[in-house]
Write a structure and sequence with these properties.
Layout: H1 6-14, E1 19-23, H2 27-35, E2 40-43, H3 47-50, H4 62-75, E3 80-84, H5 94-106, E4 112-116, H6 122-130, E5 135-140, H7 146-149, H8 159-175, E6 179-183, H9 187-196, E7 201-204, E8 212-215, H10 217-220, H11 239-255, H12 272-276
The structure holds 3-methyl-2-oxobutanoic acid and sodium ion (NA).
Main location: cytoplasm
Cofactor: Mg(2+)
Keywords: Cytoplasm, Magnesium, Metal-binding, Methyltransferase, Pantothenate biosynthesis, Transferase
């Protein structure tokens, strides 16, 4: 199977067929997401939160995303892969920005890049698209601007805020993005955006009217030692507890000498390969 294309994504919007997106950061998460049949995987700078335990995405570097994107490319070979442009990697000169995009595509094997922002990045987005690189927009709660936004606040709660979000979405559409992620906003705001632009709107914490949904991998399977349930997340498993309990049982069995048992040990005269895999 081939990764879907940005043209197929637009068709999915016109056909009312929801787009499924999750994040992935390494080979197993990418491979499992692909086998589960997601449409798009994102190598998100959320890796700073969920696998490095930074307080925000700001410390995440281009090298971090390239490193993780390479692993994701080996796991999700047949899935459309988007890589996040980290904090301040697309606000300098055009040359510098294009160099960063080049690394995500050539070294990280991404099919597209994602950038946070609206009207203020319209020109930059346009130049990247002109270079032949599909760009995914990202508006609403934009974690790289968290200190300017003043915290993880729900966006689009008043008419001026909705107006601004709409203007941002339209600017990005003009600049040529193939879709827009809308994060943490009222359902009403996301519904208007999805209705007023032709490109797919993919929501995370943005309600039911979006053209697709995105959840962070570690949130959706609860792969965290200190999970704090957010209202917009639905957890489909409790992988954190499963891992903790498994390791605790292993520790117990080592201490009581219940592991290893006869079935786990080697003896002279056994065929090596067969012996290794049981
Ligand atoms: O980094 C990420 O995972 C993201 C999504 C949460 C939108 O940008
Ligand atoms: Na991100």
């Amino acid at each position: 199977p081939k990764p879907l294309t940005i043209h197929k994504l637009r068709e999915m919007k016109s056909n009312g067929q929801p787009i499924v997106m999750t994040t992935a950061y390494d080979y197993p998460s990418a491979r499992l997401a692909e086998e589960a049949g997601v449409d798009i995987v994102l190598v998100g700078d959320s890796l700073g939160n969920v696998i490095l335990n930074y307080e925000s995405t700001i410390p995440v570097t281009l090298d971090d995303i390239v490193y993780h994107a390479r692993a994701v490319a080996r796991g999700a070979m047949h899935t459309f892969r988007v890589a996040d442009m980290p904090f301040m990697t697309y606000h300098g000169s055009l040359d510098e920005t294009l160099r960063h995009v080049r690394r995500l595509m050539q070294e990280g094997h991404a099919h597209a890049v994602k950038m946070e922002g609206g009207q203020e990045i319209e020109r930059t987005v346009k130049r990247i698209v002109q270079a032949g690189v599909p760009v995914l927009g990202h508006i609403g709660l934009t974690p790289q601007s968290i200190h300017q936004l003043g915290g993880y606040k729900i966006q689009g709660k008043d008419p001026q805020s909705v107006r601004r979000l709409l203007d941002d979405a339209k600017a990005l559409e003009r600049a040529g993005v193939f879709a827009i992620v809308v994060e943490l906003m009222t359902e009403e705001a996301a519904e208007r955006i999805a209705r007023e632009v032709a490109i797919p709107i993919i929501g995370i914490g943005a309600g039911r009217s979006c053209d697709g949904q995105l959840l962070v991998y570690h949130d959706l399977v609860r792969y965290s030692p200190d999970y704090r349930g957010k209202k917009f997340v639905k957890t489909y498993a409790d992988v954190g507890s499963l891992i903790r309990d498994s390791i605790a049982r292993y520790a117990d069995e080592v201490r009581t000498r219940a592991f290893p048992a006869e079935e786990h040990v080697f003896h002279a005269g056994q065929d090596s390969v067969k012996a290794l895999y049981g």
